Structures are given as structure tokens and as C-alpha cells.
Amino acid sequence: MGLTYQHSGVNLQAAEESTKKIAALAKSTFNARVLKDIGLFAGFYELDLEKYSRPVIVSSIDGVGTKLKIAFLLNRHNTVGQDLVNHCVNDIMTCGADPLFFLDYVGLGRLDPQVMAEIVGGMAKACQENECALIGGETAEMPGFYAPGDYDLAGTIIGAVNRDQIIDGSRIQPGDRLIALPSTGLHTNGYSLARKVLLEKARISLDAHVDELSETWGDALLRMHKSYRLPVRTIRGDQAVCGISHITGGGIEGNTNRLLREGLKLHIDYSAWQIPPLFQLIQNAGEITDTEMRRVFNLGVGIVFIVHQEGVDRVVGALKQIDETPIIIGEITQ
Fold first, then answer.
1. Does 13 score more than 70 pLDDT?
2. What are the tens digits of pLDDT across the range 125-175?
């Protein structure tokens, strides 16, 4: 008998089964702007030209990083897709844009329809919550390329903003305040160092309950990357808001400095908030310096709004009205 694709490790029947499940999940995110069903060679999305009279298309691409390794070890795949979408949504909303649609890429060694359904189900859930359509993607089954049970995720998001409503940091000035909102954990950054410390050096069990965290290590490390869509939408129209920083790899300073023009610098008061226990446990177990912790992790801060001084009380009040807990963590200096 001659060789088939399945002999090389690619299961076309499993691919067809996954495609049906994925199509149903994706379709649950569709809105009136999505013009075609899943299955063509491209996705179609009609831009609302009444809402965006001077539209600027905004895009971003990202992954989940080695947080996936924790999902593999725990065999829990229903949250990493949400991490991916929320991360991408936050990125484009920092400039004031609305997320419109999302595209995903999943690369894996062997296609497991159930695992794929969990991954894409998480993406679909996050897309629904962020009012964003999942209109297409790519699943690449590559036996021999990935270790058994491993996969990788990437996502591309497309959004839009009116040209005169772009928030790009150009109006930032000395005296502006930094208003932070808490993260839910590590989000999707710093996991290579966290795994090195916890799994290799401290040899923790992911199933072990940690009193300081009131949950297991696994639950703490898989805590979902929060979407800041609602707080951004709540305050982005306030003219006092002149910059928004999503705190990912590079920490608070590394990300917020990207918004500053020459001659401006950050003053961060790291005593303004309590560093969550998860970060303290990682730091102690790895004997990591404060400088390195600040460079790698978000330390409990997920997003930072840069706000002119006269608008601080107004912005803080608006955020509290939607049950957020804003903290002033510093200011812009010359």
C-alpha cells in the first residue's frame, strides 16, 4: 500500500472535524459588518463610515509566549485563547481605536479536535466580550516540528479610529500624572523567568495550594490577561487623557517610555501600591533584584493612563464608577 498524508503524521479527517467546530465558534462572534462565512480564502469586514468619518486602520500582532507551557503541563487550554485576544485588544486600544476583527494562527504537531475547540472557544469568548469578530485564521499541523502536545498561538487584530481621535502621546507634558489599573497576574509576560524560578529552581507543584495566593500555583499562573476595553472606552474621550500604555514585556517603565518624546522622563513611585504576592514569591524564590523584576514583570499594573493634572480627579472618578481601582503611581518630569 502506498503512503498517505496520515502516514507522515497529518490527519486530514481530524482537520475537517476541527474546521467544523472552529467555524461554528467563529460564527458566534459575527456581527452585521462581517460579509462572508468562514471557509473562503479571506475574511470580509465592511467598515462603518458613519462612525469613522476619517478612518485610520490600526493593527497589531502578538502571541501568548511561554505561558503556553503552563497550559500544556495542566492540560488546560480554554484560557490561552482569551489571553491572546485580550492582549491584542489592549494593544490597539492604547491609541484610542476600537477592535473590529481578529485572525488567529495555531501551529501544532498533531491536531486534537477537542484541544483546538478549547483554544478557539476561548478566542471566541473573548471576541464576544470585546465586541470583535473572529473572521478567519490558519491551523498548521506540522508533525516533527513541535513536541507532542505542544502548540503555538499568534493573533492579529484590526481596529479603527477617527484620525482626530488618535491618542499617541504627542500631548504629554511635564506634570502629567500616571494613573494605573491593576493586572490580574503575570498576564502574558515574564513566564520564561517565572518557569525557570518556580519549576526548575524551587521545583514547585502546579497543583499545590499556596496560602499567600489563596489558590494553586497553576491557577495563579494561568490567570487570564485582563481586557481593559471598558476603562479605555470610558475615559478616552476626555481631553486630559494624552497617553495610554499597555504594560507587557519591558515592565511599566519600558512600555510607558515608548510614548515620551525627547526631554521627558518618568518618575514612578513603586511604593504607591502593594506588589501582589505572586510577584513577591517569584522574586524571593529566584533571588531576583528589584531592577530585574521591574524590567521583566508588570508587578500588578496592567495599564497606565497619562493624564493632564487638571483632569486627574475627573478620570479617577470615571474609572471608579465602573468598579475599577485606579492608583496614581507617578508623574512625567522634565
1. no
2. 999 999 999 999 999 999 989 998 999 999 999 999 999 999 999 999 999
- In this structure, what C-alpha cell is assigned to residue 236? 478616552
Q: Could you report the per-residue pLDDT of 267-319, keeping only the tens digit for each?
A: 999 999 999 999 999 999 999 999 999 999 999 999 999 999 999 999 999 99
Reading the block at residue 85, the C-alpha cell is 485576544
Residue whose C-alpha is closest to residue 45's, from 54, 35, 32: 35
DSSP string, 245-263: EE--TTHHHHHHGGGPPTT
- What nine digits make up the cell of 76? 488546560
Residue 39: the pLDDT is 64
| Amino acid type, 287 | E
- What pLDDT does 3 receive? 57
pLDDT at residue 4 in the model: 52
| Rounded distance between C-alpha atoms, residue 40 and residue 72, angstroms | 31
Is residue 209 packed enough to be buried (19+ CB in 10 Å), middle (13-18) or exposed (0-12)? exposed
Q: Is 322 exposed, middle or buried (0-12, 13-18, 19+ CB in 10 A)?
A: exposed
CB 217 within 8 A of CB 208: yes
Domains defined along the chain, listed by start: 13-165 (3.30.1330.10), 177-333 (3.90.650.10)
- Hey, what amino acid is at 298? N
List beta partners, residue 107. 140, 152
Q: 10 Å Cβ neighbour count for 139?
A: 18
- Residue 56 pairs in a beta bridge with 161
Residue located via cell numbers 469613522: 52
User: What is the pLDDT at residue 18?
Assistant: 66
What's the CA gap between 137 and 131, in Å, rounded?
A: 18
Residue type, 161: V
Q: For the chain, how many helices (H) and strands (E)?
A: 11, 11
| Cβ count within 10 A of residue 47 | 13
- Report whether 245 contacts 180 (CB < 8 A): no
pTM over 0.85: yes
The span from the CA of 110 to the CA of 66, in Å, is: 19
